[in-house]
Description:
alpha+beta; about 375 residues; about 25% helix
Amino acid sequence: xSHNSFGHLFRVTTWGESHGPALGCVVxxxxxxxxxxxxxxxxxxxxxxxxxxxxxxxxREDDLVKILSGVMFDEDGETMxxxxxxISMMIENTDQRSKDYSEIAKRxxxxxxxxxxxxxxxxxxxxxxxxSSARETxxxxxxxxxxxxxxPGLVVRGALVQIGKHRINxxxxxxxxxxxxxxxAPDPAIVPVWEEYLDGIRKAGSSIGAVVEVVxxxxxxxxxxxxxxxxxxDIAANLMSINAVKGVEIGNGFAAAEISGEENxxxxxxxxxxxxxxxxxxxxxxxxGIATGHPVVARFAIKPTSSILxxxxxxxSDGNEVDVRTKGRHDPCVGIRAVPIGEAMLACTIADHxxxxxxxxxxxx
Amino acid sequence: xSHNSFGHLFRVTTWGESHGPALGCVVxxxxxxxxxxxxxxxxxxxxxxxxxxxxxxxxREDDLVKILSGVMFDEDGETMxxxxxxISMMIENTDQRSKDYSEIAKRxxxxxxxxxxxxxxxxxxxxxxxxSSARETxxxxxxxxxxxxxxPGLVVRGALVQIGKHRINxxxxxxxxxxxxxxxAPDPAIVPVWEEYLDGIRKAGSSIGAVVEVVxxxxxxxxxxxxxxxxxxDIAANLMSINAVKGVEIGNGFAAAEISGEENxxxxxxxxxxxxxxxxxxxxxxxxGIATGHPVVARFAIKPTSSILxxxxxxxSDGNEVDVRTKGRHDPCVGIRAVPIGEAMLACTIADHxxxxxxxxxxxx
Amino acid sequence: xSHNSFGHLFRVTTWGESHGPALGCVVxxxxxxxxxxxxxxxxxxxxxxxxxxxxxxxxREDDLVKILSGVMFDEDGETMxxxxxxISMMIENTDQRSKDYSEIAKRxxxxxxxxxxxxxxxxxxxxxxxxSSARETxxxxxxxxxxxxxxPGLVVRGALVQIGKHRINxxxxxxxxxxxxxxxAPDPAIVPVWEEYLDGIRKAGSSIGAVVEVVxxxxxxxxxxxxxxxxxxDIAANLMSINAVKGVEIGNGFAAAEISGEENxxxxxxxxxxxxxxxxxxxxxxxxGIATGHPVVARFAIKPTSSILxxxxxxxSDGNEVDVRTKGRHDPCVGIRAVPIGEAMLACTIADHxxxxxxxxxxxx
Amino acid sequence: xSHNSFGHLFRVTTWGESHGPALGCVVxxxxxxxxxxxxxxxxxxxxxxxxxxxxxxxxREDDLVKILSGVMFDEDGETMxxxxxxISMMIENTDQRSKDYSEIAKRxxxxxxxxxxxxxxxxxxxxxxxxSSARETxxxxxxxxxxxxxxPGLVVRGALVQIGKHRINxxxxxxxxxxxxxxxAPDPAIVPVWEEYLDGIRKAGSSIGAVVEVVxxxxxxxxxxxxxxxxxxDIAANLMSINAVKGVEIGNGFAAAEISGEENxxxxxxxxxxxxxxxxxxxxxxxxGIATGHPVVARFAIKPTSSILxxxxxxxSDGNEVDVRTKGRHDPCVGIRAVPIGEAMLACTIADHxxxxxxxxxxxx
Lengths: 365, 365, 365, 365
């Protein structure tokens, strides 16, 4: 019940500040016999790391993950096999320059958690945002790398579908395009539009919000649970726990408010092999909190970062009115790097529900 | 971790099926010394109960709540005082006619949880929807009645802000109007529009989605927690757990995706009495998962009920393709009755976080 | 995390006071498809109920259990089949005479929880002990009745092995004798000894402690978990939660402190059918927190009830020194009625670990 | 609910194997503003570490703890101040020689968890006992070092009170003696007896069980909770989770079974300053699961380690009958080093209940 863990059977506890010696996570509940390589986990972290294009922060963080427990090596000396004990992963902080933070130590940046941390705790690690830094999400992405392996056949992918008022054309959706541009955009036609738009934002020292869509295929029908153990409920919680997220929706989401029962309900038929199929997927793969077997689809809205060059009115911890301007390298659109984070949270949520349904130990099969 | 409870310190466990002898809840964690009357709790249930206008189901359910434990009576013989032990509340089912359910026992109603329950459990109480019936929410509303008393000065209110494509005009918002119309509409100008629109839906045997907004005032700054114990995360989870909800947003929510950092961040100043104030509330009262002290604002989208008179394609549990038409009395817009349910879930979430922050027992003061 | 539940996947929440309208429990997490009759559950309650011999309290409580949710009836109209939804059970209080409690409302009975409840909560339902009454254990016994059905082949039995300094002769152990005497004694030779001894205690208005042994056979090897999810750890917790229990031991327990590694370690051989067998069971069926497949054996010590006729020095809630003498019908040895309670707690613990290992839903098989 | 955490608000998650690169823990829920030095934490680890006398294992493990997160340094550059975020602690494994483990990789050592791990997980890190090694307890001791600081005025101490059949004389109890001998014995008269006895055990390559007593003073009256959140219940669980523990008792424990209600119930009087006092402490500081304010007293029995030089009958994972003899350096009496571990578990349990009662954040005062 303390506040740095999520999941029940696939349980992830993260720790670490932006400017401490390291950050990491403990993945408790990974079943035994799951096979993966360090390179596979690192690949997800690389997708999240900064400095990959001019549209994300220019900070240098290599984000190299180490695995400290919970695995044995296969005979190839490279493949790790989980043993069912906790998998501890650590990412050392290498770019924590000992610069002067005295200016922001007392000033509350508008839109940040500086003020609320101080109200709650009376003490706050202000260096680089401390615990509230988006660096914490590196640990989530590492945990997600394990989660993806837990459910046989699971594929979790994400894409950016909106920046500011500019939305993709869903008719153009092509998963193969997502890694061909710096935005994780599934619609190649939107790329030049976003490039030009974000260049403007970036040069103005401003920032802009975005919407991410994450999709899980291969989710076994029947996982999840009704009432308060709903799969969609846990997806909503886990996506909402990502920094800067202000809204979450499942399937057609808020659009469901605008349509009729006839339009909304997914009809069923018997498909090939006598398998039940839904003829549409407005439900986003979940009915009554339980997976239908169709893709699980969720979207989440990320607010624009408050780290902007324009001065904003604020106060400091001594009760003075001040004006705050956040200097330094920042993400003009934090939504871009939120794509792998959203994928990781969705993968962890599904792994957790899979284990609740199937049991936790080696005799899963 | 079983799936019929929510909350950690203010913990609610609900039980009961639509057509069993009764349903109810156990509220575990209510601090001692909380004072309330049965009439106060009943009033919230009355707000949710069916049959109050032509725009909701015409079923008759009196939904009279009994309190079986956890309280002592004050000397007036009417005011109950919580003792810190679990408060068990029960609502007997009085309208469970023993009719023939054989037709729907095997047919999966499209858009309902019939199919997924069967996949998961292999057995399902099909009478009146069983556990997945919206009747379960009566227990939530009763629990919410207790929760509202736990946090001194807390006021939780809700309103319907959208039916289909018809939205209220926020400039007209007047809380005093909410109880003056059958829709919990805060904008009197929308009432005739919705009346005409919903009459059409109802006569066609169709249904329509909606959006509800819930607001909590008097939330103490500092409650909540960062990372995975976020107040907004738990609000998202608990609202998403309501039947038919497909999306949740906090503060400006999905609209935050469309604006810049300058527009979005709520600036601060020192207000009257030297108290920090935010000059706007785009954050919906929560920063970094922790309450700012400003109103907590959330919205959720409810899909249209799938109980409609039009035949829809489906299958049955024997693998036959069938057409399903849901006869009987139903809610043309379940979003209306979702207002008190959303309020209850918000109140319970805030009470839970309040106790996490302040501790659980009598010496709270 | 509130304090009236135990178990994780087989989760039991109890509620109710000794002198309220009813008490009961919600069993959340019972898998679907479990079959039982009301008479089977009632039989366990009858074993615990008072008034069955002169050695237990002479109060009249019929303890009739009602099942309010979570089951459907089989075609025989009698067998209940669990549906996977919460099973709510209620026992109405029929003997709650509205007598004058003013004398004990303010006096702290030595050895009872009166003082600590008041320190913690500042309010206390003093009528008949309120929530701290042993009546609460009736709900545990009902839950245990369900738990016994969850694990195929599980048999849980208990016996009284010590009253005061009088211990059974383990060489005489015969399970068939347990229900042939008013003490649940497995050794017929001890019965006359205990009868004479307890008659003396009873006539003196005194009380005496006891030790209960509970044994579970048919526990599948492999359930449980290492480190902090140990089967023995949860057994210890759940037995210690029974009123008046002051010690718990597993297998040879405290006697293990006195012997050598050679004597203590259970050797192994390949048994009939190639099945691994242990040649002794000092471990009490658990190694490293995980079941070996041999019987799980636990014992617990129950202190003598503090409800005695001799005056004892105490204080009242106004800070006065007083002398307290507890009048009325009481159990000279509460350990006797603790036998079915211990069985129930052991059964619930094993059911919980079984589901953690195997998963929670219908497709367990 | 995964199995490597304990506590609810003061929540400790441990990770790591005996022969991996490191082991450690995450302490989640430490309130902000708690001050301590690394040296203070290290001192507890030093008390547990091997090689300190001829009566414990001769392995070399320095067990140097690093703190990776959750603290800021005070101006002295040495005192750490908790910030309310997770405190991650790591102990690198320095003595993990890459020796040949092939012999024990398949053989189940009698009395160890080798067999049950294999049954449960189908894979097991056999190197040095892997996760089931007592090295895991180093992380508990580190966490206990933090816990001791959380409750103002709390003093937790432990002592060895029995080795084999040789018990201390309680009349000689002197806490000052505990650190003057290699056994943590509070009775100097027992020291030569134990020395001679254990020398014999050690030279024979045998082992022997023991009993540890742990005592917490300064536990505020009112912490704990009734029914299933009992302080004694959690103490029992947490002590039982220590490797090799087979029994736990609170206060007079199993001895309570042998005495009358008159002898057992602790009488009360008004003490100095009008403060309620108990005239004895048979209850071990806990009534109805709630602390009385008197010292909390618990004892636990540790079985003799199964690592002995005598051959014992066993089987291997291929189903062959084998004889196993555990070579190498071992503890003749693991109970000795269990003293600081028991202290740590008691301190963590009390810190957890303290926070449940008082709330988790900075405004505790």
